[in-house]
Amino acid sequence: MLKKILKSLNFFEQCRRYNIPLWQCPQFLFLIMGILIIASAISAYVIGNRYINDPLMVAFIVLVFAALLFSIAFIIVRSFEGLAEANRMKSEFISVATHQLRSPLSILKWVIELLMSGKLGKIEEKQIEYFAILRENINKMKELISNLLTISRLEASKLPIKKKYFDIEKLIRDLITEYQSFTAASNVEIFFEAEKSLPQVYSDPLQLKLVIENLLDNAIRYIKRGGKIEIKVKRKNKHIYFSIKDNGVGIPKKDQKYIFRKFFRSENVLRYQTKGAGLGLYISKMILKGLGGKIGFKSKENEGSTFWFILPIKS
Amino acid sequence: MLCTIFLMKTILFIEDESALQKTFSELLHQENYKMISALDGETGLKLAKTKKPDLILLDLILPKLHGFEVLKKLKEDEETKNIPVIVLTNLESINEVDRAVELGATTYLVKAQYSLEEILEKIKETLANH
């Protein structure tokens, strides 16, 4: 019985369940409110005592004061509780929905592969075109679902971090090689400069790959008429500093503070018609946060952007 | 005169989605494999024992008996424990992968991450190594 009471009083535990910071958590706020009410009641009494003769009047004023504060507190906390619960349900929903959506998507993907392979019979040129449209859109959906799943896991702190020693220069070089055909098709040149004898980094290479992939992807997509991308990696004391600079369309000043927000896509996007759901940078920021690093950028419209991140060499 | 006995390898596909059964049946037949279908865990186990396939493709979310239970029983039975099992599922948490490997699965493939061609490659590889 005592354990149960103590458990309900441990609001840190309750707050973690909601996945929101302490200052937004209803139980914690309720405690703060309680302390404030007691403090105001006491000060009301002290002040009342100095300026009012009738002690009963003082007591009455204190009670009215306390009751008022308490009702306000109750209303505020209730609304926060609603928000917290909605937030939790949203994360859970995303997790369940993405798993359920993946099954039919896998089936669609494979059926199209079978159709396009010609194994079910010869297909006409025009049919191939339309099958390709199906395939492209299925890939888009697949990517969106993967991103949503990553986000829901990041928010629930359930994305497993598997740390090991790895060579960051090699990771980047391999990635640049992977993107070769894409960069050639987009008429972009990549220049990569890594500081000599960089130490091995102890972190999660898979998650870091996601981040660098996302930054590289953005850099290529937002370069409109042939351009160049400069990637630099160097050591800064106990951190690795990575920067990627492009001479693309840049980010308009008014959009800059929203860049890392979920689903945010700059106005430039509509003008230049790139695809994407606006989740990449949000995920990158969350990943870097989880690995003990930081991410940032500077950008000027029509001149280009430089995105950077720092990562502790050993975390 | 040389007598060549042509042995067609048999693959048992335990999966409740009939669209996948159809797709894989087409794919595997074209590659000269014989495929047996099971739409739930219990049937899968029964067919494994009676038909003795050369390879089993196993989904995890199955009616009647969960994929892990099927895997466990397959490996506990003398008659079926040496048949290689490839787990083919959309579940991808590290716990599930570990559990499958612990229970004796040869390979764990997440459906969303592989193309049909790649899965075919894995099947051929596994059959060649056993």
What does this molecule look like?
The complex is a heterodimer of chains A (315) and B (130). Chain A is an alpha+beta fold. Chain A has helices at 2-9, 11-18, 26-51, 55-116, 125-155, 168-178, 180-185, 205-221, 267-272, 280-290; strands at 164-166, 188-194, 201-203, 227-236, 239-246, 294-300, 304-312. In chain A, the strands form 2 sheets. Chain A has a 5-stranded mixed β-sheet. In chain A, strands 1-3 form a two-stranded antiparallel sheet. In chain A, strand 6 (294-300) and strand 7 form a beta hairpin. Chain A is elongated. The mean pLDDT of chain A is 83. Chain B has a single domain (10-129), classed as Rossmann fold. Chain B has helices at residues 18-30, 41-51, 67-76, 94-103, 116-129; strands at residues 10-14, 34-38, 55-58, 85-89, 107-110. A 5-stranded parallel β-sheet of chain B has the order 2-1-3-4-5, with helices on both faces. In chain B, helix 2 (41-51) runs parallel beside helix 3 (67-76). Chain B starts with 9 loop residues before the first strand and ends with a helix. Chain A binds chain B through residues 99, 102-103, 105-107, 109-111, 113-114, 117, 119-120, 142, 146, 160, and chain B through 17, 19-20, 23, 26-27, 30, 90-91, 94, 111-112, 115-117.
Helix run count of chain A? 10
Number of domains of chain B: 1
Strand content of chain B: 15-25%
| Low-confidence runs of at least 5 consecutive residues of chain A | none
- Beta strand count of chain B: 5
CATH topology type of chain B:
Rossmann fold
Global Rg of chain B: 14 Å
| Strand adjacency order, main sheet of chain B | 2-1-3-4-5
Question: Based on helices, strands and strand pairing, what is the structural class of chain A?
Answer: alpha+beta
Bulk shape of chain B: globular
| Oligomeric status | heterodimer
For the record, give the distance between the C-alpha atoms at the N and C termini of chain B, rounded to a whole number: 29 Å
